[in-house]
Structure to design on (219 residues):
């Protein structure tokens, strides 16, 4: 994996990129959580998601939104962060023209950015949401977009977070025709605080992506 700089609307976006040895390998972009809450591309959960895609053979990229660490500018609004996401997706697609698939994965607020990006990018073929931020309740951006994906959540998260995930699953199925498979990581909280929690998150994500990616090859 290498550090790269991508030119964005606000200036430089700092990213880390792994290029698969297979030119036609599927792609993935990993989105960290709310930068105002100190999430960034090198936090533990974002790195675990990145490694899951990397170790299964994807070309994968993670990055810092504008205003975070070495990325230029001030911390952005949702619309500004969405522009940054579009920029890095364009970058990885332009550097992998033989690839036909792209996945998105996001933690916390990044999970919401995954869903919003899917509504705008019909080429997204798979996705994973990790402990989506339960304080975000605006579903107005959803439209029919038949797909399926994974929701990972800590089994030790509070009842409000778990109830919200159940509600989110129902809303996605009804409003966007999206089916979610939910996996609750035993003993984990929303931060996946122990090495065992993080390893299980990595294993569950890797297993799901590998299975789904193989199934779509048969279609």
């Amino acid at each position: 994996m290498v550090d790269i700089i991508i030119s964005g609307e606000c200036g430089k976006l700092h990213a880390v990129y792994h290029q698969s040895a297979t030119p036609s390998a599927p792609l993935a972009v990993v989105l960290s959580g709310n930068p105002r809450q100190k999430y960034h591309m090198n936090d533990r959960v974002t790195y675990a998601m990145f490694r899951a895609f990397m170790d299964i053979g994807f070309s994968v990229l993670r990055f810092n939104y504008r205003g975070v660490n070495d990325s230029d500018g001030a911390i952005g609004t949702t619309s500004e962060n969405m522009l940054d996401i579009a920029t890095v997706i364009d970058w990885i697609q332009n550097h992998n023209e033989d690839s036909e698939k792209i996945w998105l994965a996001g933690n916390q607020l990044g999970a919401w950015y995954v869903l919003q990006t899917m509504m705008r990018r019909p080429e997204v073929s798979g996705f994973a949401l990790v402990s989506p931020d339960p304080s975000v309740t605006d579903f107005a951006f959803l439209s029919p977009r038949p797909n399926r994906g994974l929701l990972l959540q800590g089994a030790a998260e509070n009842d409000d977070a778990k109830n919200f995930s159940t509600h989110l699953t129902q809303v996605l199925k009804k409003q966007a025709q999206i089916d979610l498979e939910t996996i609750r990581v035993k003993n984990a909280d929303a931060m996946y605080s122990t090495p065992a929690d993080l390893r299980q998150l990595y294993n569950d994500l890797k297993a799901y992506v590998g299975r789904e990616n193989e199934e779509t090859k048969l279609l």
The radius of gyration is 16 Å.
